[in-house]
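Handout, page 2. Input:
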Amino acid sequence: LNMLLGGFLGLVGGYFRGVSDAILMRILEVINSIPFLVLALLVLSLWREGGILSLMLILGIFGLQPARIIRSEVLSVREEDYVTAARAIGVPTWRIILKYVLPNSIASLMVVTTMSIGVNIIVVAGLSFLGYGVPPPTPSWGAMLQEAQEYMRTAWWMAVFPGLSIVFTVFGFNILGDSLRDVLDPRLK
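Output:
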């Protein structure tokens, strides 16, 4: 959801610019100025339906950092000569966006998305640790850590292994994002 919604908003805002882009970016700046975990806690406490679907929607809607990254890429790609040439020969706007602008700015979106997966894992674990995350029948690393607090002196492994799982998974996604940046960024070749 971060990639799709953020990518769409950044693509549309960066290509069309104007008043709608300015309003959209100010709204995103306000949302991004509130700490993500606090905002997720606020929305989850107000929206007490719970469940994995609501958690995914909240993380997808309020984690729109990719929108700013893709917007900056689109702003630079839309000024390239091939986009200007396509506009000059009368190619429709939607085709310019889908054929020229999106493929040339998708690399940054992929990198930011893989990096945000790690952030989302930490946020979900933190919310589960606090009791606002994944509902109890479904296993969650944060809930495992919360339950293991009571047994830290006698069964330390109950906290160590879920904690290490979080660390290694987030580290793996960060390495994946860094590797994708190295592979997909033409300026590094």
